[in-house]
Amino acid sequence: MREWGRFGATLAIWLTVAISLNNLIERFTRVQADFTGIWPNINYNYPTDMVSQEQWQQWQTLISQTEANAQAIMGQVTASMNAQLSANMGPLLLLSLALIIAATISTAFIWRVRAAEAETESRAASEKSKRSPRVDQLMRSLSEAEWQELRYRLTETDGELTMQDEWAQAAQQQRQR
To answer: Whole domain around residue 28: which residue ranges?
Structure first.
């Protein structure tokens, strides 16, 4: 896998985790608030545009009752919402942790494969570099008669001398040095 492929895969993994975490948080932090009883049930239909003293006193009573009930009802609503959030926090944390661990392991695997590929390439290059001096040493040690025998054996199958001629020329140049 190439570098940009690794970066793309890592980016895709972490974007998916971010979107999934956003969805989890949205789902598990959604609570219901029940404000029932904050406003008493009173008939608000008044036939005239003018408000009488009696109607005004009813409104004042309504507002004072609402203010008195509001603190108690808001306390109940807050307690209910806290209970719902507390119940949802365990699964939310567990699922979030599982997503983050999975993404971390996936990312580590993607980048560890890179290190293994680099190690394999360096090992192959090392073996090739070890092999090259051996071939050079063998070519230098061959006599002219051995070269002729080698050329004969290499060409007796198909009659072509391409790579072998290049080897022979390289060996002769090395011998002359």
So the answer is: 3-41+53-131
